[in-house]
Amino acid sequence: MTCPVTILPVFMRNSTICSLPLRDGFPGSRSSAAHTRNAELCGFSVRGRRRTGIIALGFLICAVATAGRLLMSCTLHMWYAYNQRADDQLLMMQSLPGYFDSTDLYKLAKNQGYGYVLRFIGWSGVNVDLWYFAVWLLAALLCAVAVQRCFHMVGLSMFAYVYVLWNPLAFEDWLGTRVYRNSLFAPVLFILVAGLLIFLTMVWGLIRSLNVDIVPSRSGRTVEADRTVEAGESVKVDRTVGAGKSVESGNSVEADHAGETEAIILLKMAGIVVFAALLGAWFALVFDLKEDSIWMVPMVGFALALAAAPVLRARLSENVLVSVTTKIGVVALCVLPAMVTVAIVGCIEDANNRHFGVRELNTRTSGELAGFISRIYGIDSPNQTVEVWSPADSIEKAFDSAPSLRAYPQIREYMEQFQGEDQLTGDFISWRMLDAIDQSPLTMRDEAEVQRVFAKANAELDRAFAEGRLRKTDKIAISASLVPRTPDEIGELFAPSRDAYANTVTLDGNYAIGSESLDFYYSGRVHAPSRMAGLKQLNLDIDDLSPQAVPWFTRADAETVAWQVVAAYRAINLAMIAVAVAAVVSSVSVALVRAVRRGSVVRGVSAVRGGSAWSSLGWLGLAACLLAYAYCYGFFAYWYAQYLHNDRITFFYVTGLIAPLIDIGLLLAVGAYLRLFAGGRCD
Q: What is the distance between the alpha carbons of residues 91 and 96, in angstroms, rounded to a whole number?
């Protein structure tokens, strides 16, 4: 891959680099400098000392909100469920010294991303409460920066900062204060989505800085920065080397980046390269946090493709061409985050191969053992339901069709105990298979040998399917790790996934803050080795796990404030939904009115050239993508979690992952609405 920096001089020498009006951050938008200034305070035109005073007041409010949020973190405190063998304790074990020499049967049962986070916390010597606050603070800052870059509204950016920093999930017992990976999902996804938005605007801004325009005048002649040319003569206006000189009355050439030197553009490009690398590294961490993180790949891929989209067309208009050099450079920049992610994930897999003999992030949901389990799911059985994924007859057929496993009869004997009312529900077979293997001569100590044995068994099952000795189910399967379903069973998912989606906005149920059950974990009476090792890794005072930061603010006070925040966010979210609906109606209406006035037929962006209505529709489209994507993930998460029949646990699985997409989607919708009417103008 050609390094983007090395082709920069070619970028700036090339005379056919595309020109895109990106003043409002979204391709196709157009605004004047005055319009941008008027939009800075959430659509209200405020100037001079009054404007400065309002901004200063906003920063003061943000500072107070930050101090209050820090106090909340230092009063509620994180808690560690040391007795959750396959969850909290497992992830903590992955962070402790000696992990890579472990022979524990669950050592690779889950991805190690959270273990790396805990390892870093232990190395830093900083209290886990402060680290979680820092992650939420970073999420709030990046969301504020993203909103500012998208809409240039200081007031809205400040609102986004406080809105994310005080998100109620930060105080929830399982999704906020529990030392478990699910409590990290919300802030890291806020950071990821905000980072993608920032990356979009950075790339689009670079295109604007590098462009060279062919500008037709209204009279049919072509206007260059310092001369006028008759129509038909091709003239290029380089806006990076001092364009923007006065032209004859009635014609103008906008030059937002006039006078930018090659050095400045090089710094911009270097900044994008650095940010792209950081974004890719962050996505690698997010990807390694959870076994099903593959669901985020289409979202990230779409964002990177959208960043490059403006230069992928051969011709943007009759007079504006896109050079091959420009395409290569922009695409290289947009591919860089993905390359960094792949490289880092590959390094993690290499480390596992070096220490455990398997090139996998985990061996419970990926690899040959997972393949064996997925083949059991795929065996046709009248006893398979949305609760019982691996009925006893399917397990029996699988072992009958895999002669190589007869060398380890203990595995089959262990699995045959799960019959009748004791049949395994959901994906519990993936855990019970680990137990079965470990009590056999094969054991889970040698992960590489387990992979070899089950690779042979899988080949035998595939032959049995091919020869008709095993019959495949005709149900619909969307993933090898999920149970196949009939159309009617799929239809059962719409209502609960819709309710969970709505609850993420309305915050009506399943939130728990300050539960009495947590008192046990804050107690210092238990001295189990796993607990002591974990608390030490978290840099906590074992003798005082719930210290009071200030004498006038108790833990009970913090819990009361947290519940008040939940109530406030319920009202705020509903108001944002109302604004989002208004934004859609207003943007479409304004675009249609402008099209009719100009005698245009509405067929696309060209019908209303560069108007704020189309800019708003662009951001609304992106908001709709985030909102729809959140629902899709919730739907497929219910495909997995339905067998639990427990709304609280489903809330634990789903909410932290979809809330950031919904919240940022609503922020984009609000920004689009305010941008449309900023300063009382629409263009």
A: 9
Structure tokens at 381: 């059985």
Q: Answer whether 310's CB lies under 8 Å from 21's CB.
A: no
Q: Taking CA 162 as the corner, what is the angle to CA 159 and CA 168, rounded to the nearest 5 degrees?
A: 125
Token digits of residue 235: 């003239």
Single out the residue of 99, 120, 101, 121 nearest to residue 110, CA to CA. Answer: 99
Closest by alpha carbon to 109, among 427, 366, 294, 390?
366
- Give the span between the Cα atoms of 492 and 507, in whole angstroms: 23
Check if the beta carbon of residue 363 is closer than 8 Å to that of residue 451.
Answer: yes
Q: What angle do the packed helices 113-124 and 262-287 form, to 10 degrees?
A: 110
Task: Indicate the average pLDDT of the chain.
Answer: 84
Distance (Å, whole) CA 626 – CA 639: 20
Both tokens assigned to 94: 């992955």
With both helix axes pointing from N to C terminus, report the angle between 612-641 and 494-506 in degrees, rounded to the nearest 10.
Answer: 120
b or e along 314-352 (b: 16 or more beta carbons within 10 Å of the residue's beta carbon)?
A: eeeeeebbbbebbbbbbbbbbbbbbebbeebbeebeeeb
Query: What pTM did the predictor assign?
Result: 0.87
pLDDT value of position 272: 95
Q: What is the DSSP string of 463-520?
A: HHHHHTSS-B--SB-S-TTS--B-HHHHHTTHHHHHHHHHHHHH--SS---S-GGGHH
Indicate if the pLDDT at residue 597 is higher than 80. Answer: no
The encoded tokens of residue 312 equal 């992928």
Rounded distance between C-alpha atoms, residue 558 and residue 171, angstroms: 9
Which tens digit of pLDDT belongs to each residue from 498-556? Answer: 999 999 999 998 999 999 888 888 887 778 888 999 999 999 988 888 899 999 999 99
d(CA 280, CA 335): 10
- Tell me phi and psi for residue 222, to 5 degrees: -105, 135
Cα 363 to Cα 444, 480, 496, distances in angstroms: 10, 14, 31
Instruction: Give the residue extent of every domain in the chain.
Output: 368-480
490-510 core/surface letters (b: 16 or more CB in 10 A; e: else): beebeebbebbbebbbebeeb
At 148, list the tokens. 């500012």
Closest to 557 measured CA to CA, from 74, 44, 9: 74
In terms of phi and psi (left: phi > 0; alpha: psi -120 to 50; beta: otherwise), the region of 208 is: alpha
* pLDDT tens, residue by residue, 102-131: 999 999 999 999 999 999 999 999 999 999
> Rounded to an integer, what distance in angstroms lies between the CA atom of residue 499 and that of residue 493?
10
Lowest mean pLDDT among 376-385, 397-406, 515-524, 560-569: 515-524
For the record, the structure tokens of 42 come out as 């959430």
What per-residue string of b and e applies to 534-545 under the rule 16 or more CB within 10 Å gives b?
bbebbbbeeeeb
The contacts of residue 322 (CB under 8 Å, 6+ apart) are 16, 17, 18, 311, 312, 313, 314, 315, 316
Short-list 580, 664, 526, 553, CA closest to 189:
664
Alpha-carbon span 514 to 511, nearest angstrom: 10
How far, in Å, CA of 573 to CA of 27, rounded? 28
CA-based end-to-end distance of the chain: 40
Q: How far is CA 185 from CA 74, 113, 519, 535, in A?
A: 20, 12, 24, 21
**AA letter at 539:** N
Burial level of 662, CB count in 10 A (0-12/13-18/19+)?
Answer: buried
Q: Cα–Cα distance between 96 and 90 in angstroms, integer?
A: 10
